[in-house]
Amino acid sequence: MIIKYDSNGLVPAIIQDATTKNVLMLGYMNAESYEKTLETKTVTFFSRSKQRLWTKGEESGNFLNVVDIKNDCDNDSLLIQVNPVGPTCHTGTDTCWKEENKSNYGFFSTLEDVITERVANKDTQKSYVASLFAKGINKVAQKVGEEAVETVIEAMDNNDELFLYESADLMFHYLMLLQAKGFTLKDIEKELVGRHK
User: Where is this region: Phosphoribosyl-ATP pyrophosphohydrolase (predicted)?
Assistant: First the structure.
């Protein structure tokens, strides 16, 4: 791999969780730390403050185990995908931006949060989610069954708009059923990953 180091002999290295895709930190490498990273499969930086090689986790035990290294289009920055062992930031947070390093499923994650909030507020007069949860898990499960049947019926028709509408209803109610059972999309992902060969 061709790497263009700057005038100080350094290249920025963006550290990304290989699973969640969240950016964990930014560090700098020189040629020696890059070679050590390749050799050990554990991220080693050149510490500008200590003026020496520094393996992330050498004191805390929170190592960054390398999964993949990519160079950008100009060959002057690295993207290193890792499996982190513990929090990445020296302050104890998951990332150096004080963010939790959790999986994000786009709008589905937002919807999970909305469902959680509406269930917690228990405003059955204003919230469909709260009112359905108040009726118990059997009603939530029944609603998933109804939406599944409606989705299957629309799948056999030629109206794609109605099929997508019913599919959205099914997914929404399924997210509610997951929460009613104490699970999230993360649990489903874990199950599917376990089945993947």
Answer: 108-197
Residues 6+ apart with CB under 8 A from 172: 111
Task: Write down how long the chain is.
Answer: 197
CA atoms of 174 and 185, how far apart (whole Å) = 10
From residue 41, alpha-carbon distances to 7, 22, 78 in Å are 26, 20, 15
Per residue in 41-81, pLDDT (tens digit) is 999 999 999 999 999 999 999 999 999 999 999 999 999 99
Q: Determine the residue type at 64.
A: L
Q: Note if the pTM is more than 0.90.
A: no
Q: What single string gives the DSSP state of each residue in the chain?
A: ------TTS-EEEEEEETTT--EEEEEEE-HHHHHHHHHHSB-EEEETTTTEEEETTTTTS--EEEEEEEE-TTSS-EEEEEEESS--STTSSSSTTS-------THHHHHHHHHHHHHHHT-TTT-HHHHHHHT-HHHHHHHHHHHHHHHHHHHTSS-HHHHHHHHHHHHHHHHHHHHHTT--HHHHHHHHHHH--
Of the candidates 126, 146, 122, the one whose C-alpha atom is nearest the C-alpha of residue 135 is: 122
β-strands 64-71, 78-84 pairing: antiparallel
